[in-house]
């Protein structure tokens, strides 16, 4: 409902977009009546919601395509960008956090903390153009824009086109994950079970990876689920910047054309994905720490 109300505040209407600049007020009013856009917002929303609960997200009056079909057509691009960004973030953040925790309060730790502070303040709309300039224009490692599909261009070209926008989103996530995991690792290292593992003669690396890292992952896993919304929000920026045919570009195009039906459908789809991912995050706690299973059973 909030997205409908906000979009209604923007000047113009979808009828004016469909009919063009030379449309008369009478023609626009007639089309609004035909589309049901002359009714109160609450009535429009309830009518749409009644269909949405059955899986019908409506049909876009601009493209004349079902919104769900348009979403499903574009969601693989957004999912690939988000998952690749998340994978990059986790791999880099875990390595940096392990280094920081192992050499805590040293020059190495302070340097990594300073770098993460800088990355945390660089949003995707700034990181994207910088990466394009240095890695695409200057070094020529990646294409400036466009999307290569796996089925037609192959996996290598697909990853080459997806890596730069994913990296633009991942930079901020790397910093956030590093700071959270480093703090938890330092705290876990002081626990008795870690000291007992060392006393049994277990190697430092084994204890760090097998015992300390796993027990320190609760906050990180929670943050991954919470930050999914920020990852999807970041794809709106990078998909527009890199001309990627994903959900982000569809949202922007729908907002520009005042396509309320499409915007509502996309927002609901993203919300459902967000809720499902956070449910999976909650279920993963039992795998990370067997004590959670015992508490739940009790």
Task: Name a few traits of the molecule.
single chain; mainly alpha; 77% helix
Characterization of the model:
Helices cover 77% and strands 0% of the residues. Helix 5 packs across helix 13 and helix 6 (107-120) packs across helix 9. The model has no long low-confidence stretch (mean pLDDT 81). With 298 residues, the protein is mainly alpha-helical. It is built from 16 helices and no strands.
Task: Give a short summary of the structure.
77% of the residues lie in helices and 0% in strands.
Helix-strand layout with pairing:
Layout lengths: L1 H7 L5 H6 L5 H11 L5 H12 L14 H36 L4 H14 L3 H15 L11 H4 L1 H34 L3 H8 L4 H12 L2 H9 L1 H14 L5 H10 L3 H29 L1 H8 L1
Helix pairs in contact: 1-15, 5-6, 5-9, 5-13, 6-9, 7-9, 7-13, 9-12, 9-13, 10-11, 12-15, 13-14, 14-15, 15-16
Number of helices: 16
Please report the total strand number as a whole number.
Answer: 0
Mean pLDDT: 81
Radius of gyration: 24 Å
The backbone outline, from C-alpha atoms, is elongated
String of helices and strands: HHHHHHHHHHHHHHHH
Low-confidence stretches: none
Measured by DSSP, the beta-strand proportion falls in: under 5%
Q: N-to-C terminal Cα separation, in Å?
A: 41 Å
- Return the structural class: mainly alpha
Helical percent range? over 70%
The main pleated sheet reads as: none
